[in-house]
Amino acid sequence: MRIQKQEIEKHNGKLLSRHQRKLKQLSNEIPNAQKIIRKLIDFQIAIPSWALGTGGTRFGRFSGPGEPGSLEQKIEDIGLLHTLNKSSGAVSLHIPWDIPTSNRKIKALAAEHGLKFDAVNSNTFQDQPRQKLSYKFGSLQHVNAKVRQQAIDHNIEVIKYGKALGSNSITVWLSDGSCFPGQLNFRKAFQRTLESLEEIYAALPSNWKMFVEYKAFEPNFYSMTVGDWGQSYLFASKLGPKAYTLVDLGHHLPNANIEQIVSLLLMEGKLGGFHFNDSKYGDDDLTVGSINPYQLFLIFNELVEGMDARNMNHSTDLGWMIDASHNVKDPLEDLLQSVEAIKIAYAQALLIDRRELNRAQENNDVARAQEILQQAYRTDVRPLLAEARLKSGAALQPIQLFRELNVRKQLVSERGSKAVATGL
Ligand SMILES: [Mn+2]
């Protein structure tokens, strides 16, 4: 299904006067409303192709009705999101869950919906049907060179798909590691992984980036070969200038200071991109901003400060992607909420009075520094987001319109209630 322009205009018309009142009030209170709105219009967040169905856990999966049963339908779903919020203008594709039958047709379909291809993702964390060798004991780190070669070849194949679709980065997340002490020689595992990554790196087109994603634990519970940002940074540094660290918010040990990690990676020019989600305990993959929106704000504070210090373009110089799983919500509503939460945190970070904050820091005025941060965090910036959507032709209230138009019901009538999406 497609949402028509008139349906959006009708929805916006009903809400317009209330929106304008709120926007005017907020614009009177902050100095840079127009500038923030422009930045919000440019800021796009990629939707992962694996997150459009109702996800599951290792205990089970409860598929939802009207799930996309093909890559074409997933693109259509992301197109619906983008029509509603004009902030989800990119797809992050997973291979082999979402192999295009025709690169040309998929690229054209995405373009029709105004979508680009962000980082492509490889998968050597599970065995696929008809796969020759198993990844049970790792992929790029494996003791058997043939298994390593199979995993290298897969990554190079993923780059080829990405190239054909107009992507310019690959995210490599490895589940490699060990479950028990003594199982693995850490140094050899690191070196084998590095040698494998070097072969993949050599296959990167000149304008491409490689994102090395780390994760503290799971599925391996004693060691992960790319277990934290230090290890990822080590790989990225040894690989070369096209390799970067990717931060997935759920991939840290509890209470890790992610904003400090972000700040230092930016300082070193080695932050490549983000996988947004939220969590209370581990890699919970919950809706962005649903558990700890203050942490998300503090991360964006460092992102804005660090990117500005390096004259980086907020919207294009890092990869912004969601990596979440939806067990109890409609995936499309969940994704709309995640995109909104990311942009709220971004807008609040843009509100911070940098000069004042710097002055407070230089004077050891700790209370003042906190006041400045929290003044921004406690500002309701949602009218700025709504205005950015209005200006780009999207809906003032995307979830409200999603429900008013009975989008899910229509998808069920088109696809049936039993369609199951590939993915998490
Ligand atoms: Mn991730």
Walk me through the structure.
- The strands form four sheets. This protein has a six-stranded parallel sheet.
- Helix 2 runs antiparallel to helix 10 (331-351), helix 8 packs parallel to helix 9 and helix 9 crosses helix 10.
- The protein has 424 residues and is of the alpha/beta class.
- Strand 6 (120-121), helix 5 and strand 7 form a beta-alpha-beta unit.
- The chain is 48% helix and 10% strand.
- The mean pLDDT is 97.
- C-alpha Rg (nearest Å): 22 Å
The SSE string, one letter per element, is HHEEEHEHEEHEEHEEHEHEHEHHHHHH
Distance between the termini: 24 Å
Strand content: 5-15%
Q: Using DSSP, what is the number of strands?
A: 13
Major beta sheet, strand line-up: 6-7-9-11-12-13
Helix content: 40-55%
Class of secondary structure makeup? alpha/beta
**Main beta sheet, described?**
6 strands, parallel
Cofactors and ligands: manganese (II) ion
Low-confidence stretches: none
Give the integer mean of the pLDDT values. 97
Shape: globular
The number of helical elements comes to 15
